[in-house]
Amino acid sequence: MNLKNLFQDFNPSKFLVFSCLLVFSLLFALRLDHTIEWSYWVVFLPIWLWKLVVISGSVVGSYVWWKNPHYRLEGDSYVQYKAMVMCTGMHLLLLMFEVLACDNLQTAAHSWLLVFIPLIFMALVSVGICIWAVKNERSFEMELFCAVNILQFIFLGLRLDMVITWSWVIVFIPIWIVMCVALIGVLYAIVLAIILLKSPDIIPEQRRGNVSSAVGYSFLVVPLLIFEILLANRLDHTNGFKFTAITIPLLLSLITLVCLSFGAKGGNNWWFGIRKDFCQFLLGTCPCLQEYGNISYSLQYNDSESGSSTPVCEKAKEFKSRKEPIDEQPKAVVPILSIETPD
C-alpha cells in the first residue's frame, strides 16, 4: 500500500466538485420521481456545500495574500491568485443561477430564460478566461464547458418557457455536437493506447498510463451519452423510465470523474492560503498520516504453517553463508584467431 503514489497527483478541487454533483444528481432524480418529498432547497444542499467551500477558500486565500506581501514573490503566486479570483467569480455566477433555478423549481415565480441569464453571461466571460488560461498555462475545464454550451443554455431557457416547442432531441443538438467530438477523442485515445501497448520502445509506466486514460475516458463519455439519449427520450415521452433509472449512467460518469481526480494534476495552491500541494499540507498537518504513509506492507508465505522446520530467515542466513569455491589457478589467455590469418 503506497499512499504517495495514490495522492501524488490528487486534485482536491475536482474531488469536491464531482462528489457534490454525484450526491446532488441522485437526490434530484429521487425528488423528480417523488420518492422523496423534500424541499428543493434541501435537495440542493450538496451544491450549497460546494459553493460554501469555494467562497471560504477564496476569502481565506485573499486574507493570506494581503496579510503577507512577501508571499506574492513566490514563483507564479500572482498567476495562481489571479486564477483563484477568476474561478471565484465564475462560481458566484453559477451560484446565482442555482439559487434562481432552485427558487423557480420550488415556486415557479420566474421565467426560465431569466434564470439562465447568469449562466449565459458566465459562458460569454468563459471565452476570455479560456484565452487567458492558455497564455498562462492554466487549466480551464469548467470555463471550456460553459463556453461551448452557450447555445445549449439559450435553447433550454426558451424550451422550458415554451417559446419554442421543438422536440427535446432537437433542443439537445448543441450537446450532441459536443458529445460527437468527445467520442472522437475517446476513439483516438483507445487507438493510441493499443498502438503504444504493442510498441517495444515505450516503458511499462507509459503503457499503463495510456491504457488507464483510455479506459477512464470511455467510462466517462459513453455513459454520459447514454444518459443524454435516455433523458431526451424521457422528456419527449418516448419511454417511461423513472428519472432514477435514467440517472444511473450519469452516476457512473461522475464516479469515474471522482476516481480520475486522484490522478488529475494541477490545482491552485492559494485556496485557503495553504501555498503548497494539498497532500503535503495534509501530511504536515497530521503527522500520524505521514507515519502511516511511510509504512510499506508485504504479504509473505509462512513456512512454519506448512510444517517446515527451517524458518525463512534461517534459510536466508544459510544462503548468504554459503560461499562458492574460488579457483585461484591462473587461466591461460588464448589469442583470438582469425580465419583470414594464414598459419
Automatic annotation (TrEMBL):
It comes from the Eukaryota. It holds the Pfam family Tmemb_185A. Keywords: Membrane, Transmembrane, Transmembrane helix. The chain crosses the membrane at residues 47-66, 78-100, 112-134, 146-169, 175-197, 209-231, 243-264. InterPro entries: TM_Fragile-X-F-assoc (IPR019396). The keyword Transmembrane applies. The keyword Glycosyltransferase does not apply. This is Transmembrane protein 185A. It comes from Pomacea canaliculata.
